[in-house]
Amino acid sequence: MFLAIKEIKHAKVHYGLIIAMVTLIGYLIFMLLGLMLGLANENTAAIDAWSTKTVILSKGANVNLNQSLIKTADLPPLKAGDSLVGQSPVVISRQTGATHKQSAQLIGLRADQPIYQHLELVSGHRPQKPRQVVLAANLRTKGYRLGDRIKLAGQKQSLTVVGFAKDGMLNMTPIVYGNLQLWQAVKGGPQFAASAIFSQRTFQLDTTALKAYPRATYVNKLPGYTAQNKTFAAMIGFLMIISMIIIGVFLYILTMQKLPNYAVLRAQGIPGRTLTVATVSQAAVLMVSGGLLSLLLTRLTMLGLPASMPFQLSWPLAAGLTGALVLLGTVGALIPVKLIQRVQPLDALR
Amino acid sequence: MNLIELKQVSKVYGHGVSQVQALKEVNFAAAPGELNLVIGPSGSGKSTFLTIAGGLQTPTSGQVLINGQDPAQLTAQQRDHLRLTRLGFILQAYNLLPYLTVHQQFELVDRVKKDHLTPAALQTLLTELGIDQLQAKYPDQLSGGQNQRVAIARALYANPAIVLADEPTAALDSQRVQGVGQLFKTLAVKHHKAVVLVTHDQRLLAFADHCYQIEDGQMTQLS
To answer: Residue A137 above 90 pLDDT?
Structure first.
């Protein structure tokens, strides 16, 4: 560590540039992680808020809530923790103030079931009448306010906004919470009980018309969700491998310049292990410095990001990735270590 | 007791038509308290002699004993330890790490070797070499002569029983040559070290107890 620190302090520009590069790679990794988690959250925020363990859909829906309809006749007996959810894609248009149209998902709930009862609001109250709705809180950034009147496309009667819900995003789309009768009106009648049952328990079905899916299976089948996460994860993985190679190559070049000195040190009896430890610990110092700086840069960037941007950083995960970055960078240092191991004391006199 | 002994040592490089005999049946001994000078032109085998005498490589034939041990019988790790504890090398170039100050060059020795000079003895040594004011400087802030004197001090700081130097006065002016010659002589006599200087600097002859000429791999003892 003595040699590593002294060299970094002496060649500030050399090592400053390497740290800057690691910082930029780390920054890119954390920004991608933030976007990945932010987008994932916009897919699943509501499902998480509903404490979902099992999702029951109609058998032919292919794990797609949009395609699922449960007939009243097929409805299984419900227990505590089960909620009927009517879902339909809608377009809302604001009737008060400036006109605005917004694609959304209508979620119809029953007032005596857990999702309705535990709906967390940031303002207002839950829908208590058939023509009242609660909007996803992020729609406030688009100018929606309590008391606004909105219409659903194809519906004549207007609805009153009585609240804003926290975590009101499902599959990247803001939710309009209403009651189940409102959803049935949109869907065309009471022959359908709901689109799905979201349950907080493991659900056993004795009907063949429906199928129960664990939360993970349902979430992974959300349109675009898995592909999006895999794309981000692959980008992060590649960046980490690239950072490992970059640190290895830089240290290799710097080590090559130091070989004559190392040969003299070996001739003087300095063990090869001392030089190896110096190189590996130097890589660790560079990676830790770059990792911490990139975390700081990410934090500063987050202060300036617009609220509408889907960005969410998990600090434990970011710390874990920093650890992985340090580990991979240190592994990268094994490239120049092979060079050091080949230095012979005799090279000092050649 | 001799600290270095070479008995009938020969060294051959290469095979067939490209074969070169760098050393031919060399006999050499260096005892504590003596300054030995090995003089010869370029390509005479001086460097090969130094590497074999310092345990950096083994001879093709003959026997080498350093501090009573044959390096050929030791593991690489044991040879490292032998060089670290018993030998002090002073080479022509790359002796100093460019990113350590003069003071830190000695600190590096502290970290790998327990037996070294006391701070007071180091201060005396630096004063004798005229580099006591340069401790905060980096090698690239020193002249060639100053660098060489720091390298000498660094090797001696490790308090070796044997000092091997390759052209130790190459970058020094006449006045400094006298000083360094006297320093090596003092080291041999006062500190009871076996000193071997490989050089073609005739100005050091005056300080030598034994002088050897090496030419075409053959060593002969001068007066």
So the answer is: yes
Chain mean pLDDT for chain B: 89
Looking at the 3D structure of chain B, how many domains does it have?
Answer: 1
Q: Which of A5, A270, A349, A350 to substitute to test the interface with B, most B CBs within 10 Å?
A: A349
pLDDT score for B138: 94
Tokens found for residue A4: 């590593």
Residue B92 makes CB contacts below 8 A (sequence gap 6+) with B166, B167, B170
Percentage of residues in chain A with pLDDT exceeding 70? Answer: 99
Taking CB atoms and an 8 Å limit, are B80 and A263 in contact across chains?
no
Note the pLDDT of residue B223: 64
Residue A227 distance to chain B (closest CA, Å): 50
The CATH number of residue B26's host domain is 3.40.50.300
Mapping DSSP to helix (H, G, I), strand (E, B) and coil, where does residue A348 land?
A: helix
Chain B closest CA to A27's CA: distance in Å?
30
Task: Give residue B83's domain range.
Answer: 4-221
How far is A282 from A259, CA to CA, in rounded Å? 16
In whole angstroms, give the CA distance from residue B139 to residue B137. Answer: 7
What does the alpha-carbon distance between residue A126 and residue A129 come to, in Å, rounded to a whole number? 9
Q: Spell out the long-range contacts of B181-190 with Cβ–Cβ below 8 A and sequence spacing 24 or more.
A: B181/B206, B181/B207, B182/B207, B183/B128, B183/B129, B183/B152, B184/B35, B185/B35, B187/B156, B187/B163, B188/B32, B188/B33, B188/B34, B188/B35, B189/B33
The answer to whether the CB atoms of B47 and A264 lie below 8 A apart is: no
Question: What is chain B's Cα-based Rg?
Answer: 17
